[in-house]
Specification:
By secondary structure, this protein is mostly beta strands. The protein has no helices and 16 strands. Strands 11-12-15-16 form a four-stranded antiparallel sheet, with no helix packed on it. 38% of the residues are buried.
C-alpha cells in the first residue's frame, strides 16, 4: 500500500497489490474502516496507484495506470465514490502522478509528468474542480 485516504467509514487504499481486505482488487480498493474488509467498490486499475484523495463523492487517484474505472485514463483519474467508475474528467497526464492534494475546489497533483491535457505543466499542476480545468500557471521549470 502506497497511498491511503479516509472518507467517513471508508478507507481507500492504493498501491501495487492485487489482493486486499480478503478480495481480489487491482491496485486500488475501498475498505470498511471497522472491519478491514474490501467493499464492492472495484475500479480495477491496470497499474500501481500511488496517490489518493477524496472530495465529496469523488475519489481522485494518481499513479502509473492507463486504465481505471472502466475507462482509459493516463496516470490521473476521478472516480465515482459509489460506483468506482471513472467520471468524464480526463486530464491526460503524460507521466506518473505521485502526489494529490485537495483544498476546497482546487486539486493539486505532482509527479514525473511534463504535460497535462497537452499543456506544459512540469512536475506539478493545479486544477479547478468546478468546472474541471487545469489552471494556467507553471510552478517549476
Amino acid at each position: 500500500v502506497q497511498a491511503v485516504a479516509v472518507s467517513g467509514a471508508t478507507v481507500y487504499a492504493g498501491g501495487s497489490f492485487t489482493r486486499i481486505g480478503g478480495q481480489t482488487r487491482n491496485h486500488l480498493a475501498a475498505l470498511d474502516a471497522a472491519t478491514g474488509i474490501a467493499t464492492d467498490w472495484n475500479p480495477n486499475a491496470n497499474g500501481t496507484v500511488q496517490a489518493v484523495a477524496v472530495s465529496g463523492a469523488t475519489v481522485y487517484v494518481g499513479g502509473s495506470f492507463t486504465s481505471i474505472g472502466g475507462q482509459t485514463r493516463n496516470y490521473l483519474a476521478a472516480l465515482d465514490a459509489t460506483t468506482g467508475l471513472a467520471t468524464d474528467w480526463n486530464p491526460n497526464v503524460n507521466g506518473t502522478v505521485r502526489a494529490i492534494g485537495v483544498s476546497g475546489t482546487t486539486l493539486y497533483v505532482g509527479g514525473d509528468f511534463t504535460t497535462v491535457g497537452g499543456e506544459r505543466r512540469p512536475y506539478f499542476a493545479q486544477f479547478d474542480m468546478m468546472p474541471p480545468a487545469v489552471r494556467d500557471w507553471i510552478l517549476y521549470e
